[in-house]
Amino acid sequence: MPFYPPDDASISSETSEMFERDVNTLNRCFDDIERFVARIQSAALAQREIEQQNHRYRTANRRDKKNQQPPDPNGILFMRAQLPIESEFVDILKKFKLSFNLLAKLKNHIHEPNAPELLHFLFTPLSVILEACHWGLGRNIAPTVASPLLSLEARELMQNCLTSRESDVWMSLGEAWRTPP
């Protein structure tokens, strides 16, 4: 059978579709990360409110010598105070790694904000999530998140663009966040 090379228009169309798919995936990752951080912040606020209620309860009982009922541990506030479970933390950390890979892949095609600016943007929610891991799970689970591995391009982007503080955070994530495929 004779081989006919694809014309430039079909290659361009496929490239455009792949680019659009990657940008959409990156945007979905950003949306999921923002929702996850909002959920963590909501849990932290609910925890503070529970602590305040417990303090008011203890203070009122000491002062009034009455046996007031403690806050309901099955209420909505207690449900809101629950942090995500470990598998949800693992999933969101995988989305960070995917985002780093996609930023490196798209760096020559995205502008305003560009890839380094978006990379810097990601480290604020990443720090919040890492703190929540320590707070809620009692340990750093980031080193256990092996896949996806960061591409060589993603490592290079991070090595060239991260601030020293961001680089320290990156190094604290473990080998699985620095080992290329």
Descriptive tags:
181 residues; mainly alpha; 69% helix; EPS8-like; actin binding
What does this 3D model show about the protein?
It comes from Caenorhabditis tropicalis. GO terms for molecular function: actin binding. Pfam families: EPS8_2nd (PF22975). Residues 55-74 are annotated as: Disordered. This protein has 181 residues and is mainly alpha-helical. The protein has one domain (8-177). It has helices spanning 8-64, 76-80, 86-106, 115-137, 152-161, 164-172. α3 (86-106) runs antiparallel to α4 and α3 crosses α5. The protein is elongated and about 75 Å long.
- The total domain count is 1
Parts with pLDDT < 50 across at least 5 consecutive residues: 1-5
- CA radius of gyration is 23 Å
Binned strand content: under 5%
Helix % is 55-70%
Mean of residue pLDDT? 84
Please report the number of helical segments: 6
How far is the first residue's CA from the last residue's CA? 37 Å
Helix-strand pattern: HHHHHH
Number of strands: 0
Shape, please?
elongated
Q: How is the main sheet built?
A: none
Sheet/helix structural class: mainly alpha
Pfam family, one: EPS8_2nd
Protein name: NR LBD domain-containing protein
GO cellular component, one term: plasma membrane
Organism: Caenorhabditis tropicalis
